Amino acid sequence: MAKHTGYENPALSTLIDSQYGVLTAAQAKAGGLPHETLRRRVQRGLWQRLVPGVYALQGGPPSRLQWLVAAQLYAGEYSVLTGQAALAVHGIRIPSDRIGDTAGFGVVGEHRLARHRLDTLVPHGTRRQSVAHLRIIRTARVPEATRIGLLRVAPPARSVVDGCLAAVEDEQPESIDAIVTAAMEDGGVQLAELEYELGKASRKYSAAIRTELRKCRTHARISASHGFLRKLGTSGPFGEMQDVAIYLGQRRVARAVAVWPTRAVAVTVDPHPVEVSTLTTLGFAVVRVTSEQLVQDAEGVLRQLRGVLRNRPEAVLSAGVSLLPLASARRKEPAHA
Predict the structure, then answer these.
(1) What is the Rg, in whole angstroms, of the alpha carbon atoms belonging to the chain?
(2) Other beta carbons less than 10 A from residue 230's beta carbon
């Protein structure tokens, strides 16, 4: 991009270059560039207005970065880019064939609109309206921005959740899987971070996202459990029943990745708090772990488990409690204690 030099005010020229050739009307006025000059150059096609009060000082199509800068300048100093636009800034690339017609930038009329919607978070009370492809999202939860160059962007997990909410609102729920997968595989975003962010988000439009995260959690639990059982099978402690449904009478009360019946010790992965409470009431010593722990520190979990078993006396399962290995669940009824 050519340097924007030749203005009487060197500071203005420096500002324009630092903003990649994008300038607001207010900045132009403060730098001594008359509004009439802006108007004439736009009229002649030398410059162009991207959004109200924000201009690209060139005639050719604006770049992706210029659109992002324009969105930020329009939304104000307390704004934070989020959604798919922010994920792109973070370097998280979502395959275009997985998100429909929202991945690129194109020319639409005089505004050269971006087909990729730009979502920007602003505090409640900010007097800005959504315009064209730029959506202003008023929120009481504007996150602390991550600064990447000139841009202020939401952290990756927040950007993922906002991007998924936008996909549902735009009637493109099929994009959710692509966004979540790209963030977790390429961006290093943890599932727990997404669950936390979604828990704080509005429930409007969130049902499909919750379903997707539950699928991810189930997959993570199964994968982590299998890896843990492989380690358990080679290093011990031995004598466990694997992948067990625990019943009280005819009611299934919990699922454990491993159970030591003679010690009434159960290892549960990502359990619901009610499951843990019920097992404890029934006399089990519960080793409660997360999928992330099993992946990141399986040896630490094994050390904890060995300690629990070492200090645990012989035990008899409570009356009415039965254990059913899930591999045989379709063939057998639970055997009661």
Answers:
(1) 28
(2) 11
Q: What are the structure tokens assigned to 326, written together?
A: 């899930």
Backbone φ, ψ for residue 8 (5° rounding) = -65, -30
The residue with tokens 């404890």 is 280
What is the token pair recorded at 154? Answer: 């939401």
Cα distance between residue 93 and residue 187, in whole Å: 9
The backbone region for 239, taken as left when phi is positive above 0, alpha when psi lies in -120 to 50, beta otherwise, is left
Residue 98, pLDDT above cutoff 60:
no
pLDDT tens for each residue of 122-169: 999 898 999 988 999 999 999 999 999 999 999 999 999 999 999 999
pTM of the model: 0.79
CA-to-CA distance for 172 and 140, rounded, in angstroms?
26
Altogether, the residues listed in the chain come to a count of: 337
d(CA 208, CA 302): 36
Q: Note the pLDDT of residue 5.
A: 41
